[in-house]
TrEMBL record:
PROSITE patterns: CONNEXINS_2. Belongs to the connexin family. It comes from Aptenodytes forsteri. This is Gap junction protein. One of its GO terms (biological process) is cell-cell signaling.
């Protein structure tokens, strides 16, 4: 997948954001998107091939991997990045609607189509609520799917067709845990920025 579309979307939203919103865009683009593309994607690239169990029973390794990693971390992060960025499209669409309306009526209807006021303010607030909601949902989902944010070195599996309890080893657990902590921290930072911007706009 090319992440160019997401980059262009974030750049477009930056035009209509407040100061806090611009910080959010920078955090998503630099500390999440670039880290994901440059480093995190490669760490989990061969996670299935590097998952090893101390038994060669056909099918055992596969069912154990599926049990402990029901959804790939990296695919879930990709989905999270897409979901938290798409509400910003509401703002872009609303500005485009205003510009099209002015063009259709052939007169100036707004001081500036991109100025956050009236209907655009409501759209902006809704996009902030949706972004915050998606961030929280994905953090809870990560926590529930993987029983916390830690990556164990060793997991014990007794699911059929494994004949007994077998030891399975996860590759590069320390490196993976560092990246998980980093990405969870940036996700929490984005929640704080969204709530700060929401409070700023409401009280303003």
């Amino acid at each position: 997948m090319s992440w160019g579309f997401l980059r262009d979307l974030l750049s477009g939203v930056n035009e209509y954001s407040t100061g806090i919103g611009r910080i959010w865009v920078a955090v998503v683009f630099i500390f999440r998107l670039l880290v994901y593309v440059a480093a995190a994607e490669n760490i989990w690239k061969y996670e299935h091939d590097e998952f090893e169990c101390n038994i060669k029973q056909p099918g055992c390794e596969n069912v154990c991997f599926d049990h402990f990693f029901p959804v790939s971390h990296i695919r879930l992060w990709a989905l999270q990045l897409i979901m938290v960025s798409t509400p910003s499209l509401l703002v872009v669409f609303h500005v485009a609607y205003r510009e099209n309306r002015e063009k259709h009526h052939n007169q100036k209807l707004y001081k500036s189509p991109g100025e956050i006021d009236g209907g655009l303010l409501c759209t902006y607030l809704i996009s902030l609520i949706l972004k915050t909601g998606f961030e929280i949902v994905f953090l809870v989902l990560f926590y529930k799917l993987y029983n916390g944010f830690k990556v164990p070195r060793l997991v014990k599996c007794d699911i059929r067709p494994c004949p007994n309890t077998v030891d399975c080893y996860i590759s590069k657990p320390t490196e993976k845990m560092i990246f998980i902590c980093f990405l969870v921290a940036t996700s929490c930072l984005c929640i704080v920025l969204n709530l700060s911007e929401l409070s700023y706009l409401i009280f303003k």
